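2024-03-11 09:14:02 INFO queue: dequeued item VWFA domain-containing protein, len=195
2024-03-11 09:14:02 INFO validating residues
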Amino acid sequence: DECQSGNGNCDQTCINTEGSYRCSCADGYNLVNGTTCKVCRMPVDLVFLLDGSGSIGDSNFQVTKNFVATTTSDFQIGPNNAQVGIVQYANWLYEEVSLNQYKTLDELLPAIYNISYWGGGTYTGWAIDYVVNATLTESRGARQDVPKVVIVVTDGQSADDVRQPALRAKQSGIIMVAIGVGSIYDGTELVEIAT
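2024-03-11 09:14:37 INFO prediction written
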């Protein structure tokens, strides 16, 4: 049992595996160099833009929610650290979580898992414009002089143009990340969205 002696040199949790061990960290910490746990305390306004259209499907939407929960668990959530917003879109928009709505990860995670999948058409360009012009504003909790990141999770089959809205977002200083979901995502569209 490698974990019996000095916790396997792990900062937090040592997990026995067959013939070896691995280290693990609590929520809000990142594993660095295999043994050390460091919290991510970087101030950032992070918005997840989730494709809730019919082509995604319920099972892929569940995968999307798990991705959001796992990703946010790597951040220290709070007004001086990471603020997380979530917008679901199709041929409509719904702000599931406002940027400054939750102050801790324990408050945020249940809200993520309680997001319902709706279905509909796909208007990613319109949704990107909404996030830039409405969600990432000071009146909605965005902070001055804090990096702004939008993670678009989509199958990349938008009925509208994504190039111009993504370009406007990038020109305003927003870091755009695009993640494909499902087996038929459009890689070209994802590249057009990403910084």
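2024-03-11 09:14:37 INFO annotate: Residues 29 and 170 are 29 Å apart (CA to CA).
2024-03-11 09:14:38 INFO item closed
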